[in-house]
Amino acid sequence: MPYEVQGVIARGKGQPVSTETVLVPDPGPGEAVVNVKACGVCHTDLHYREGGINDDFPFLLGHEAAGVVEAVGEGVKDLAPGDYVILNWRAVCGACRACLRGRPWYCFATHNAAQKMTLADGTELSPALGIGAFAEKTLVAAGQCTKVSADAPPEVAGLLGCGVMAGLGAALNTGNVSRGDTVAVIGCGGVGDAAILGASLAGAAKIIAVDVDDRKLAWARDFGATDKVNSAQADPVEVIRDLTGGFGADVVIEAVGRPETYRQAFYARDLAGTVVLVGVPTPEMTLELPLLDVFGRGGALKSSWYGDCLPSRDFPMLIDLFLRGRLPLERFVSEKIALDQVEDAFARMHRGEVLRSVVVL
């Protein structure tokens, strides 16, 4: 018998979301049903609602979540009812060429649940990032469940399911920030601030926060930024160079996802420095750079998918750091809201008033 729950649905491009009845099937082979305890309101969910990802409406939104396993399907060995988990959207296959080369964080065959959740009338739903966690229960592939310590509150633990992990990983995994490095982060929302926190955790000597909003720059200070630049008032490339002895930063993390901010990142790095793109562009955006500059400046231009994380490795380690007081994940939680308040949370997020609204169920 399917589970009957309430979930947040986006029915069409730009339409306000609604809370509706969702039918969640019993888990099939390799699947799990999870009781969602908390789910962050991520900008990616707004992208889905606006048709910026694809047009497979209706969507069951929500993906940045933690919860407790309700049931597992046939063949699931390392997961059991009662396990406390963070949901991830890159369940690795273990068999593709990336996995077989020992680089599972690049897995080319990540997978989701095979069955579909539906509306009460049978309409199939597209779960955001294969998760769909703005719901009391959701169906996922068992590999999308990462067990962590239940001592971490779900409203905190769930943040590692997307935005915070993306930022931390952009600094720690993709950017390989190390002790003594200079780092600049362009865009100081949730992902950018997580990148700042990651750079601080890695021992960066100087961390320069760049944004057009003084309120966000103040938040960035709380996560470890040593310097700040309001790019609406000054040229960030010039200021970053001034703050780094005229050279530019060793690592520049672009957490906006726009051509103009990417160009700033490109020219704000030191020779042989690294640019990390973790901000998500939209399909119509294009980038033009002089090829001679790409050649002449050397270094690395990288994209960071999910912070190049391996959930089974990174989630438990980061939760352990949180529980030991070394990773202040709780600072990302601006407010706790109910399931029927997601639309209002989207508006506050769009206005830059919050780092993370978190739905608590």
TrEMBL record:
Pfam families from the UniProt entry: ADH_N (PF08240), ADH_zinc_N (PF00107)
Molecular function as annotated in GO: mycothiol-dependent formaldehyde dehydrogenase activity
Native species: Nonomuraea africana
Keyword presence, NAD: yes
Gene3D superfamilies referenced in this protein's UniProt entry, alphabetically: Medium-chain alcohol dehydrogenases, catalytic domain, NAD(P)-binding Rossmann-like Domain
Record keywords, A-Z: Heme, Iron, Metal-binding, NAD, Oxidoreductase, Zinc
Transmembrane annotation, as ranges: none
The Cytochrome c domain, residue ranges: 25-139
Record EC number: 1.1.1.306
Root EC class: oxidoreductase
Descriptive protein name: S-(Hydroxymethyl)mycothiol dehydrogenase
Similarity-based family: Belongs to the zinc-containing alcohol dehydrogenase family.
Cofactor(s) listed: Zn(2+)
Presence of keyword Phosphoprotein: no
